[in-house]
From TrEMBL:
It comes from the Bacteria. Belongs to the RbfA family. It comes from Candidatus Acididesulfobacter diazotrophicus. It is found in: Cytoplasm. This is Ribosome-binding factor A. The gene is rbfA.
């Protein structure tokens, strides 16, 4: 049963990604990436995790910039607002393709994991550069 729930969650995440890419024309959701979904054992609740690609002046905003966190927080709030207003449309589109006896309640949550991974990778790269420069 757990394996089935995992497959259902993956399918829901995939379908939401497609809806965001092809069917929603909301600027608040244009830089959103669906990371994963978690569904409850009884399939009544599904939590969708997303990340936001922070773009400023047409360029991907550098996470080392001192104002990055403030700007990213604003983008996340805009995305949450976009999800709130589009939630019913997303549910209708997704569950017209993913057929379940019960339609789970969707909730959306920001996942800072990619942002944190990117910062860690930058620290590692900077340290490697320092080590190489000293040798």
């Amino acid at each position: 049963m757990i394996e089935r729930n995992k497959r259902v969650a993956e399918l829901i995440a995939h379908e939401i990604s497609l809806v965001l890419e092809f069917k929603i024309n909301d600027d608040r959701l244009k830089n959103v990436t669906i990371i994963r979904a978690e569904i409850s054992k009884d399939l009544r609740y599904c939590k969708i995790f997303f990340s936001v690609i922070v773009i400023k002046n047409g360029n991907i905003y550098d996470s080392k910039d001192i104002n990055y966190s403030d700007y990213a927080e604003k983008e996340v709030k805009k995305a949450m607002s976009g999800f709130k207003s589009s939630k019913n449309f997303i549910k209708k589109e997704v569950f017209s393709k993913v057929l379940l006896r019960l339609i789970p309640d969707l909730s959306f949550e920001y996942d800072p994991g990619i942002e944190q991974s990117s910062r860690i990778l930058k620290i590692i790269n900077d340290n490697n550069k320092i080590i190489n420069d000293n040798n």
